[in-house]
Amino acid sequence: MGNLIEQARRGSWRSWSSDLRRSVRNASFSSAEHVLHPLLWLLATPIYIAYLGRDLFGVWILVQSILGFSQLFGLGLTTATTKYVAKYRGREDSEALRRVIQTTGWIYMVLGGAAAALVFLASAWIVDHVIHPLPEHSEMCIGAVKLVAAGVFARFFYSVYQSALQGFERHDLAARVGMIVNAVTMVVNIALVTRGYSLHAMVGVVVACTALGGCAMWCILRMKLVPGLSLRPHLDFAIIKEVWQFGFFSGVRAIISNAGEHLELFIVSSVLGATDVGLLGVARRLPLQVHALIANATAFLFPFTGALVERDDKERLRRVYDKASTAVVIVISGLLMPILLFGPDFLALWIDPEFADLAGVALMIYCVRYGLLPMTIVNHHYLLGVGLARLHAMIVTLSTITVLLAIYTLTPRYGINGAAGATLIVVPVVFLTRMYIECRIFGHASLKNNIGYYLPIVVPMGITALIARFGSAGYVRGLPLFLGMAVTAVGAWALAVSIVLLLQRVHVLPVASAREHTGPEHAPELESP
Fold it and tell me: Quick one: the chain helix, strand, coil %, rounded to 5?
């Protein structure tokens, strides 16, 4: 009996060790990809503004938004691909894996072609009614939007095979391709813009690099993970039915989420013009990159939780949830506080003081927004992983509609600061939905715990705001700026960790490693996909 217990313990440790290594590898590569992209963007943005001018820079941001906005035609099939690749990988069904990838791949190509045709045919309307460039840039913008249509198709092709790699929990492979695509795209576009090339050439580079990245991911799948994978037309209606049941609500969620993210800029463009979109786009992008970094570093939670659901391992499902929530609030606190305190100073050094004067307040508002929304990251991965796509779609729809209505109301009166401030209205919605989500997944929710998760962010944020309020009037530059940001990051991390440890000691936050099996009375049956 003693030997049996010891073998079980060793097997459990090997399983946990394997999970840990895989999770660390996936998080590391996903983080590296989403550290590289902001660094390239930081390098490119002042160059783009200097050579394109603020109006065409705003147009460039909106053109890129069209690529993202077009993903609403995907109907959630990328998320469904990840879900069902993870499912059949857990069952070790290689034939079903091949059928899922080939079927969703071809459906996505058809949908991508339809979306591309729509963008091409509506190019003039998009420029006149959405982008609003200066009159002398109208013809150039129409040509750029027409070329974006090819990029829409390439993005669909890229996305479905990226999702398949993520379903295999091979974020490292997807991230390597993504880093190469991003680096080549940015470097070539910087070279083109400094030599006087137009937006057409820049969009063409995006299209070509995205298409090549999609081809690379398909080749990796075929050679390493799915032998026999083919590009031949293939539709398996049993797979379509299964994927659609999950993908429909995931698609609704993706449509609403993508529409909301890009409609924020489109609303500002329609009210204030493309120049102010450039200001708001930069102000939003800095803290958004922090949020995206954490979201992508934890993206392995989606297929990982799906595998835990298949194994009915509810104890580990809850333990990982607690650990992920704690880690997210600590990391995001340390990364956002330097931007909140020194963001306008950084804009003045990075671009110019006039730009900082115009966009500095909006930047700080966005820091508050993304600082108060870290729990959405863990909730997003868990809702998809346990198959609650319908609930996820309802939450995203409610949040997006609320934010867009607030932006539409406040932007005409308060400009880009009003547009940024309007996004804060979603914070109480997120808090209440997190409570409901925990009830659905785990059978109970703690108000004390959920309030506690905000304290490691709210306390450093309040201290940072006081320092900013009573700090120096001029812009900090050079070495003092970067030293100040580094000290602020370390101080915020140390304070956040101290608060978490204190809250765990007084039992406000759970000590995840000590949690026992929740038991059937606290772990209801999870909704089937």
Answer: 85, 0, 15
Q: Which two tokens stand for residue 401?
A: 């509609």
Q: What is the reported pTM?
A: 0.64
Whether residue 207 is found in the same domain as residue 348: no
Residue-wise DSSP of 400-437: HHHHHHHHHHHHHHHHHHHHHHHGGGGHHHHHHHHHHH
Cβ-Cβ contacts under 8 Å for 349 (sequence gap 6 or more): 475, 477, 478, 481
Specify whether the CB–CB gap between 332 and 341 falls below 8 A: no
C-alpha distances out from residue 292 to 69, 119, 197, 238, Å = 17, 27, 30, 35
- pLDDT tens, residue order, the chain (529 aa): 444 444 444 444 444 455 556 556 666 666 666 677 777 877 888 888 888 887 788 888 887 777 766 655 655 567 777 777 777 776 777 777 787 788 877 888 888 888 888 888 888 888 887 777 777 778 888 888 888 888 888 888 888 888 888 778 777 788 888 888 888 998 899 999 888 887 888 888 988 999 999 889 888 888 888 777 777 766 666 666 666 656 555 556 666 666 666 677 778 877 887 778 888 888 888 888 888 778 777 777 766 777 777 677 777 777 888 888 888 888 888 889 999 888 888 888 888 888 888 888 899 899 988 888 877 788 777 777 777 767 777 777 888 888 888 888 998 888 889 988 888 888 888 888 788 878 877 777 788 888 888 889 889 988 988 887 776 556 777 788 889 889 999 999 999 999 999 988 888 888 754 444 434 334 444 443 3
Amino acid identity for residue 223 in this structure = M
Write the DSSP assignment of 258-296 as a string of letters.
HHHHHHHHHHHHHHH-HHHHHHHHHHHHHHHHHHHHHHH
Q: Given 228, 258, 288, which residue is the final one in a domain?
A: 258
Q: State which residues form the domain around 175.
A: 18-258
Residues making up the chain, counted from first to last: 529
DSSP 224: I
Are 198 and 96 part of one and the same domain? yes
236 and 120 within one domain: yes
Residues 249 and 375 in one domain: no
Task: Give which of 376, 380, 419, 374 is closest to 299, Cα–Cα.
Answer: 380
Domain count across the chain:
2
Dist. CA 347–CA 353, nearest whole Å: 7
| Tokens of residue 343, six digits | 């963001």
Are 399 and 429 in contact by the 8 Å Cβ rule? The answer is yes
Spatial contact of 395 and 433, defined as CB atoms under 8 Å apart: yes
CA 402 to chain centre: 20
How many other CB atoms are found less than 10 A from the CB of residue 113? Answer: 15
The residue behind tokens 């991965």 is 381
What are φ and ψ of residue 348, in 5° steps? -65, -40
